[in-house]
Amino acid sequence: MLDAVIFAGGNSSRFGSNKMLYPIDGIPMAAKVADNMSEYGSVLLVGAAIDDAKIIALDTYIGPREGQGPLGALVDALQNSKEDLLLVSPCDTPFFEKQDFSRLVEAMVPDFDVAVARDDRNHWLLSCWRISTSTQHLEQQFSNGERAIHRAVVGLRIVEVPFLMGKTRNINTQADLSK
To answer: In the chain, count of helices (H) and strands (E)?
Structure first.
């Protein structure tokens, strides 16, 4: 019924080291995110180096759109999924907990194509996607040259799931850890 993926592409240049491996509460950041998603089954990394994925004991998938941004990674993950829904998270959101992911999944009633976490803005990579109704639309947007998820979703049925800002914050720099 559901696949879960963590986006781990990028080179962590603002962070200064590989942030997916940075310890939060004693475990690598991406492993903490995976643990928070794990009640939905196995979790797959998208865009992570094989050696990095081995460190946190997760499989990784490198799709044909690797290096073409978050929308490319999302389309690759949707195409790779074998289930009805795809739960996604970036590797740098360790404060988005199990119950937060549950709220996204619960919001995916048949009326919607995507449930997105929202505080003062939508967090498109903290979301749950209906594969049957969103994949072709996003593939077409990507093929037409779109690279921004927030523009590519125009035309999809979206439910915004409200969260406090602390829940959705991502870690881009070392200073973000102390906020």
So the answer is: 7, 9
